[in-house]
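Researcher: Before we compare anything, I want clean individual predictions. No alignment, no superposition, just each chain on its own. First chain goes here; please echo the sequence and then give the structure tokens.
Model: Echoing the first chain and its structure:
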Amino acid sequence: MVPLVYFVITVGQIQGGSFAVVGAADQAAKVFVAQPDSSTAQAAAEQAVALALSDFGHQPDRATVTAACNPADCQAAGTAVTVTVSLSVPLPFMPFAEGLSATEVEASSTQLVGRYR
């Protein structure tokens, strides 16, 4: 019975991580396109990801955030900014196993830079 309960808890952690990265990517993309320059935009996106992940009980240091712009100028009107968030979901109740993870989940979100900011 104990392995079954552990399996259910692990699946719940993975599902929670999936919800967390979807929300984090969406918020990070929205924050990114609202900033005046690229360095401020990247910092604001990382802060939005950290906040969204901590709301779901995940550690922000286990996540990576990447932003891609099409065309290359991330601040030009009409540019599509895609933010991708990857999270390594840890195994539950394993504080001594730093490098172990149940899986890695990833989500992307795309926003357009508006003409008027």
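Researcher: Okay. Second chain, same rules.
Model: Second chain and its structure:
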Amino acid sequence: MSDLVLSVDVAAPAGTTWLALTDWTRQGEWMLGTSVRVVEGNGRSVGSRIAAFTGVAGIGFTDTMEITAWEPPLRCTVRHLGSVVQGTGVFQVVAKGGARCTFVWAEHLKLPFGLAGQLAWPVLRPAFALGVRHSLRQFARFAEDYSIGGR
């Protein structure tokens, strides 16, 4: 298993940040190269499934996830079900007073491709983390401007 934990401060209340975070169909507005859709359930309860396609021009992979914990407005835990991405993801919102919070993104991943994946991870991890950090900065702006139903 390999862990990656990153966070970003958000100048928005925890409740607003939670709603922005769990607006699955709009994640493509802030998550680098990714589009997300609910494929089973309502997307707001344990057992719901979401599918995130990451790639460019139709070339990439789909990461299907099942929500295993739903604790609004604090935490959503998902189990990655795919052949490429396996493990657990945790999205957590930590309130910092009434108008600020921190969004924490944690991934506990089983690396794909066996020994080759384990050997490649130390080289690929910095690029992956860079992409996630970029997405987190985009998310902070998205959440600060968030309105239900789009802009």
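Researcher: What stands out in the second chain?
Model: The chain has a mean pLDDT of 91. Additionally, The chain has two helices and seven strands.
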